[in-house]
Design brief:
11 helices; alpha/beta; 317 residues; 34% helix; four-stranded antiparallel β-sheet; elongated; Alpha-Beta Plaits
Length: 317
Amino acid sequence: MSAVAIETIGLCKDYGEGRGCHDVTLTIREGEAFGFLGPNGAGKSTIVKMLTGLIKPTSGKAQIFGQPSGSIEARRRFGYLPELFRYPDWLTGEEVLAFHAKLCELDRSMAKRRIHQLLDDVGIGSRGSDRLKGYSKGMQQRLGLACALLTNPDIVFLDEPASALDPVGRHEVRDLLARLRSQGKTIFLNSHLLEDVEQLCDKVALLNNGKVLAEGKVSDVLSSQSSWRLRVSGYTPLAAERIQQLLGANVVVSNAEHDETSVWLEIELENDEQIGLVNYILIELGLTLYEVGKLQSRLDEWFMQAVTGLEHRGERR
């Protein structure tokens, strides 16, 4: 089993008036991509700042590969891209990276190789010689990602790394992070872009008002419900009544495109095994079954179900 890369035990930060985070316990193993979700003001960035040693917890503890967060040993193991960052706009992209390389005490020849490689990897390329005042917000975010990866860290903490990128840029960053994961890097991703988390991450946790509401493997979250779509002809309401009686499942009916003789049925079941009984019922009632396919439950649906009806600190006026 791989080593524990990131661990928090009863982690708390009390800012007063209920703000901060409370009793957060997480375990992320080496090589995992972890998605940290939550509404605005949930406390996600506070937790990342404690993990990176930028602020101290009120109680509890956080460790990076077994070392206390904030220690020199822990800091050597990770790179960090904060949500809000600024670089002097009179510097070039290469100069920003070179400055960070000096802070990290990288060997000069190694730093030069890493800088040019990373500029290509994040999609800046030859524009690394341009001054930052000519960079778009998306270009600056790419540069921030390069800074986080400069030391080839074992862990990468990323706070909204694709929020300023267009769809092409998001796709490129997602591919880069997937390559890092394939190399055994551990990725801790704060993001409101649930599609990115769904495609990249192995595990996910949902935070609201400083407390973890749910966590688990992304594959388990997405398979927690079994939703199916079937195209049939000869449909009558009797079929929906029969399915409701036997399985307790509701049937949603919609017309099939460009086909006046068939309809689509959407059914949410308790498990995948029940679809066999649904098929049997439809055929027994004399319907013709053309297509059967499982609908992938999306992470944003899980997110909305979990937080609907709850108060969110970020919405307070």
